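The following record pairs a protein chain with its ligand, pyridoxal-5'-phosphate.
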Amino acid sequence: MMDVPARILHAVRTVVPPSRGKVVLHEPEFKGNEWKYVKDCLDTGWVSSVGAYVDRFEKLLEEITGAQFAVATANGTAALHMCLLLVGVQRGDEVIIPSLTFIATANAVSYTGATPHFADSEPRTLGLDAGKLADYLSEIAEVQGDVCVNRSTGAVIRAVMPMHTFGHPVDLDALVELCARWRISLVEDAAESLGSYYKNRHTGTFGRVSGLSFNGNKVVTTGGGGAIVTNDPQLGRLAKHLTTTARVAHRWSFIHDQIGYNYRLPNLNAALGCAQLEELPGFIQRKRSLAERYIEAFRDMPEAGIVAEPPGCRSNYWLNTLLLGRRDLALRDAVLEALNGAGLMSRPAWTLMHRLPMYEQCPRMNLETAEDLEDRMINLPSSAALAD
Ligand SMILES: *Cc1c(COP(=O)(O)O)cnc(C)c1O
């Protein structure tokens, strides 16, 4: 009788056999027009902040997400920072985010001078628990005029920024309703969910504005890059203006009408992105078939299972997630040891935001589910190529 880590390793091996050699968590793939488009930039000299690939990249993103406006940015963190500024987040405000997220979500809040206010997650989506947040707001907040105020700190709760964890959409219907009722702007951190849909609508199109990421380990990459998407024409125009140093259009004069940001995506990166977006449907199809195989491999194992897309959603399965049946850190670490020891790069959840030194004093609700998930979660190798 094998012990649990050995059985988990065995199950993963049925999906990723030893013949694959050492396997990383997620690697990019450049088998389409990447070389061609990047070479075109080098051949023509259009490598920097002006060039046709940025426009084309934004057009493609609009087509894929169905959002009316996409504005490419230097990275996903910059996109989120800008999203928060666009909805009016300012110094002294609070922004509700899940504690179970990547550091960029919390840092983007801090860059505005606002304070992250941590919320719990739900096991079904691994994302922000809308029901629990609704109860919590009833306890601590009140609507004053057209803003929501935290009664204990006196701060305005200006935005809620949920995150679609590993590509699994959060409960958007509930969050849209809650934000409308509480006069809070909804901003989606859709950095991990390009190609993920909630009830047939692309994630990132439910919030007033949303941020995407094209970092090297995401579903598609521009090397480094991000985008802001919105259906609000005014916010779309303002996003473009503020991310391009707020320069007023003129043939030769340099006039800037406010403090803007140099957050624009270079043409060279956008060229890579255009080629990657052409491959997106194939990437998603292969990632979904890999996920199906993982789900099947763990179907009959009571000690662990794979997180499946929530009902009504279509996930890009960016990173496959193994959830241990019980909370046992020693077991989790033994599984990580077994997998990584066998050359299968696997990793635990991010350290929860409220445990990090710069965020441990921030306001928060009871975070028992996030803390439980943190101890039970392991990400498995998820590159699209593993499906071939
Ligand atoms: C990747 C990611 C971002 C953005 O990261 P960048 O590296 O700045 O592009 C933001 N939030 C989450 C949850 C992410 O996973």
